[in-house]
Every structure is written in C-alpha cells, then in structure tokens.
Amino acid sequence: MPEHVRTDRRGRLATIELHRPEALNALTHDMVRGIAAALAAAQRDPAVGTIAITGAGERGLCAGGDVVGLRADVTATGGSAARAFWRDEYALNAAIARSSTPVVAIQHGIVLGGGVGISAHARHRVVTESTRIGFPEVTIGFVPDVGATWLLTRAPGELGTRVALTGEHVGTADAILLGLSDAFVPEERIPELLAALETTDADAAIAAVATRPPTGELAAARALVDDAFAGDDLRTILERLAAAGEPGAALAATIATRSPTALTVTLAALRRAAALPTLEQALEQEYRVSSHVSLLPDFAEGIRAQLVDKDRSPSWQPATIEQVPDAMVEACFAPAPDGDLALPEEAA
Known about the structure:
six-stranded mixed sheet, three-stranded mixed sheet
C-alpha cells in the first residue's frame, strides 16, 4: 500500500483508511491506485463481508483531489498526468458503486469533490454531525466530476443543480435529502459501528446506531429552487433568482463569483447526464469534460486564487457568462485528447 492508504482486517470487516490528515486526506494518484488495489483485494477475500472506507484525523474523510498537483501538471506538460489521474479515479468511483461486497463509507467532517466520489457511490453512506459535503469545483474554474453529474441529477427537483452551480457545502440532513448519504450516526458512535461491522452485516449494524439527523436547510427552499434553476439557460436562472428576493438574490450573488466558463459547462453537463442511463456513462462524459476544461484558463487561475496564492481574487477568462462562446462549451464534450474513458459495468 502507498504511504497514505492503510488497510486492516478485523473479523468480517476490511477497512481502507485514507491517511493524509495534514492535507485533509486529499487524494493523490498513488492514493487512488492504493484504494483501488485494496478494494479489489477485499472483494476477492471470501471471509470479508463488508468493506469500510474511512479518513484519518478529526477534520474529514477527504477534501477532494490534490488539485494543486493537477494544476502543476496542466501548466507544465499539458495535463497528461492529470488525465491519467482522472482515468484511475473515475474507474475507482465506478468500482465502488458496483462492488458486490457491501461498502460502508464514513462521511465525517469535510467531504468534497473526490471525497464524495469515494463515498457517495458506496452502498451505505454514513454521515455525522460534523459532515459538510459539497462540490466546490466551479469556485476553481473546474466542473463537478467523480460521478457528481449522475448523483446530482438524481436529487429531488433542481436541488442538485443549485448545489453544483453555487459550490456550496451542505450538512447532514441535506446530504441525505440530496441522495449523497443514507444514515446519520453520531460521531461518538462511529467506533461502535465499525466494531459491529466485524461480526454483523452492514444493514443491521447501521440500524442499531443510526438516529434522526439534525434539521437541514434545503427542503424549505425547494419551491424557489425548482422554479429558478429549471431549464438550460444560465442567464435565465440568474434572472429568476435575482427577481425572487431573498434568499434568491443571495444565491445569484454567490453564483456570480464563480467561473463563468465552469458554470456554463457544468449546467450543460448536468442536463446531458440526466438523460444518461448509467453511472459509467456519466463518468465517461465527465472524463471528456474534465480533460478539456482543465486546459482552459480558468482551471489554473481558479486554483491559483483559491489554493496557491490564496488571494481569493480570480481573474476569469471570459469574465462574464454572456462572453462564454457556445462553441467553447460544445468543445468540452468532444473526445478527450488522449482517447476516451471506457468503463465496464459488471459488478465486482
């Protein structure tokens, strides 16, 4: 196993722990490969009844992919290593989803981007009171990936569109409402749950410790969201939000700070993913989009502003959604530079 992935076997439970707490367990390519190898090994072991995915430290399961490293590759070499990372990451997301051995993901603390990809496709997704889940990609000039377009287009109404375009993080109850999570277990009882999984099947072990989650926020705004975020035109969505008073105007103001290119491509990707029949096909579309969007100016600039220089003042190109050419958006769905991703769909 690579340095930042740790595995264990206790009874019928195999555990895969992301162990890079100093970086909020952000995923490197080596970590993705290590998780995939550990998952495959556990699936082959007839004594394993459940696989648990956890993150080291108190701050969170995983803050996403190591995008600073991806930016360095894109700016230095044109992104071949970044595309190799996404190929393996998306294959891992699909493998978790189709695992015949039940996977339990403990979504404690911060769970963003790639962290959602290694957890929300699991058969059992467990949140705690500290959970904050989100897809912040539009804040760094990127697009929701790791199966996000599949997950968010299966959320109730237009709640998934809202989450994708705002880049906001949601808590426990809202993660369950969106379909990114299943059950709430108080953080103090997670060790008890993991211990129970050593001898008990996942359904029974989770049911024994799960309880009602704290109240969420998204359900109360459902009518506004379903009306304002409908359709394929981003300008119309922003106009509806601005005309709706608070909290619509606040949502419009938030979206207006995000990358115009990323926003426009994200909305197009969501609408196309809604018509796709499988997660694998959504991931294959996301690979095309990620490959192309990462080569556009806003990817390097957004990561610079948020995570490198940390001035939080990106200079987006183009600067407004009106200036984003339709041809640029359409080009993001063309075949990827190194060839397309093709994923098997059978269970492992």
